[in-house]
Amino acid sequence: MFVSTALRLLLFCGFSSTTVGNPVERRATADHAVTFQSIYHPPSNYRIPKTLYGRSVQLQDGTLLATWENYSPEPPLVEFPIYRSIDKGATWTPFSKVTDQVNGWGLRYQPFLYVLPQSIGQFPKGTILLAGNSIPTDLSQTKIDLYASKDAGRSWSFVSSIAHGGRALPNNGETPVWEPFLMVYNNQLICYYSDQRDTAYGQKLVHQTSSDALSWGPAVNDVIGKKYAERPGMATVARLPNGSWIMTFEYGGGPNPANSGFFPIYYRIASTPLAFASATDQILSVNGKVPTSSPYVTWSPSGGPSGTIIATAASDGGIFINTRLGDAKSWVYYETPQPAAYSRQVMVMDNPDYIYIMSAGNLNRDNWVTDTVMKLPNLQ
């Protein structure tokens, strides 16, 4: 959830300068490590935090696309930049942008990139989708809109509006919608998001589904708090090799036996990605350490017979790894060269021995956008 520093108290790691080499002119085929590389430095006239909430995706040919929140001066309307790397994260160049085509508000918060693994309606396999929060300058409304690119990210078109909420303020009693996450299951496109519109809950996690990406079904609960003041949010989902699914989320105000912060990281494991509502809450803990705030989860087939679950959270520069299908006692923590950041993404590369970590900084800091490519630390 996008909240104030008073709630967050996140660890901030200072950024050091990194020299960016010239982009290569061909698709790289070798796998390699990239350590805390710069993607984008915003101009000095950007508003603090300048950048935030980075997201990336890898295309079939190995190309990486990245986007993030830009805190540029207004006017003009804010937009989501698209940067491209053709050498697997080592160098980046500006490629395109996704602009608000329907509201006249701009595209402000929480972009999410996704490549369709199959056709959905009129959108063929390989179409790139971007879901993001369109919000006017006065923050009076929130609207999760969907855009698509059928030409590898060069151009973008509005597809549909998924959810519409009230003021973009992360306070109980307000009615915004936040933080979309997309995936396909059973020939349907699913959008998970955080929802404050239900007066029975300060915030809850829900999903909507669509068979064509144009029209959407009703919001269905995934995680609700036990008390009104609790704020489960920021869901991400990954498929496991035994056919089950894992969802990570921050549980604002939820039980935290480590007393490590207001937003402890929880997860649920369900038989389908539509059944998280009936799954059991589990807290992510390593030797009593509980990470906090804005998690992200993914899964790699590398690392053992059950592969490797990889999770990250804003409280830590390292990653949390589980090779036993999410068993609560089997999480292990490994350091990484990528600093802790708000809503830091971790993604498995086309060579699943490697992971990609992208950061766009912390709340209320002077940020820029960086990435790291590294081999899974649990591999021998």
Automatic annotation (TrEMBL):
Gene3D superfamilies: 2.120.10.10
Annotated signal peptide: 1-21
Keywords annotated in UniProt: Signal
Statement: the UniProt record of this protein carries the keyword Signal: yes
Organism: Claviceps purpurea (strain 20.1) (Ergot fungus)
Domain of life: Eukaryota
InterPro entries per the UniProt record, alphabetical: Sialidase_sf (IPR036278)
Descriptive protein name: BNR/Asp-box repeat domain protein
SUPFAM superfamilies the record matches: Sialidases (SSF50939)
